[in-house]
Design goal:
Layout: H1 2-5, H2 8-13, H3 18-34, E1 44-46, E2 51-52, H4 57-74, H5 78-93, E3 100-101, E4 112-113, H6 114-131, H7 134-150, H8 174-187, H9 190-204, H10 226-243, H11 246-260, E5 284-285, H12 286-303, H13 309-321, E6 339-340, E7 350-352, H14 353-366
Helix pairs in contact: 3-14, 4-5, 4-6, 4-14, 5-6, 6-7, 6-8, 7-8, 8-9, 8-10, 9-10, 10-11, 10-12, 11-12, 12-13, 12-14, 13-14
InterPro entries: 6-hairpin_glycosidase_sf, Terpenoid_cyclase/PrenylTrfase
Length: 373
């Protein structure tokens, strides 16, 4: 398959309509949920082992709004039902102190972690907004209060880092700040928004002169993934919008423009960038492509400046071109690989559920639907 991936014609001819690509990805997420004994979504499909991984609380949490959005976008109510089942499961497994566990449901040790908790906020917030069920408001408040209590006075989260991550401070925790800010608005809790902004300001205080953020990768701080770079940009941008902090919005815009300069002619981004915003990998991280497409489209909405819309559309076209919609295998059909080629350096030979989630969000946002909002 890796050899097939490298055939140049595959990227140019495997195009499809936005709607068919979305339907295929939604079908893959349904298969990922069906593959588990609970109502979570399997973390990934492993091509080499021909097996699904166990449910992943972190990413199931932020898949919930994507399925609500797709149900409304497509008129397919079954995806709303799936989102509600996921939200119930997330509340059932919420830890006693309010946080969300690290890793997949089978991971040891069972420990709450800041990043995962921040991601599940998106699901509980959306489920509560959709239904008004107090169950999800309760889960949301408990998780937000746990995050605020875990935060240091300078705005960073140092405690409760994932035991599966490389370092204590992670710039991409701004994505958790984004979840906290969104919940703060929904719950009418300005203290949650203030905590979110404190984290963004703490992260930006460490930025280099060129806008570069250190401590921004899962495993290689000198060459972070476009996936985690995009996480941090989105968090800074959206918290800046919610808190009306123009400095944060400007910083996110500057970073997004720097990433755009590394985009290849085929629309893909390199999987890793160095501290000068230059390509540091030959393979592409498909999740990062989708996330940056979202960031570029959001900046166009916020500023009315469409200079980066073409970058977003080209990134989306690339990802559509490498999505396998004809495979007979439900673990592959409609899914989105970790890397292209599939043997690249991120989620090698795996189809992660978050890749499908961000792929769908990017395509719905490009279509004018307010996805993941």
């Amino acid at each position: 398959m890796a050899i097939k991936d490298r055939l140049t014609g595959l990227r140019r001819t495997n195009q499809a309509s936005r709607e068919s690509a979305l339907a295929a990805a939604a079908g893959w997420l349904a298969a990922a949920q069906n593959a588990t004994p609970d109502d979570g979504a399997a973390a990934w499909y492993d091509l080499q082992r021909s097996a699904w991984k166990d449910s992943y609380p972190e990413t199931t949490g932020y898949i919930i709004p994507t399925l609500f959005d797709y149900a409304a976008f497509s008129g397919r109510e079954e995806f709303r039902d799936r989102a509600l089942r996921m939200a119930h499961w997330e509340s059932d497994i919420q830890l006693g102190e309010g946080g969300v566990r690290a890793g997949t449901i089978d991971s040891q040790p069972v420990a709450p972690t800041v990043f995962n908790t921040g991601q599940v906020l998106f699901g509980w917030a959306r489920a509560w907004r959709e239904t008004g069920d107090e169950r999800w408001r309760t889960s949301l408040v408990r998780a937000c209060e746990w995050l605020v209590a875990a935060q240091d006075k300078d705005g960073h989260w140092r405690r409760f880092a994932s035991p599966f991550a490389a370092q204590q401070i992670n710039s991409y925790n701004t994505r958790s700040a984004f979840g906290l800010a969104r919940a703060g608005v929904l719950l009418e809790r300005p203290d949650f928004v203030e905590s979110a902004l404190a984290n963004v300001r703490a992260v930006l205080s460490r930025a280099k002169a060129n806008g570069w953020l250190d401590h921004n990768c899962l495993d290689d701080d000198s060459r972070p993934l476009t996936h985690t770079i995009a996480y941090s940009i989105r968090g800074i941008l959206e918290v800046g919008v919610v808190a009306e902090d123009e400095n944060a919005v400007t910083a996110a815009s500057r970073m997004a423009e720097a990433v755009a300069l590394s985009q290849r002619s085929d629309g893909a981004l390199p999987g890793r960038l160095d501290g000068d915003w230059r390509a540091a990998a030959r393979w592409s991280c498909l999740t990062g492509n989708s996330q940056m497409a979202i960031n570029w489209l959001r900046l166009a909405e916020i500023h009315g400046d469409r200079r980066l819309v073409d970058n977003a559309e080209r990134a989306n076209r690339f990802n559509i071109s490498v999505q396998d919609r004809s495979s007979r295998h439900p673990g592959v059909r409609g899914g989105v690989k970790g890397s292209h080629p599939v043997d690249g350096g991120y989620m090698t030979y795996r189809y992660p559920n978050w890749a499908a989630k961000f792929f769908m969000d990017a395509l719905m946002l490009e279509a004018g639907y307010p996805a993941d909002r």
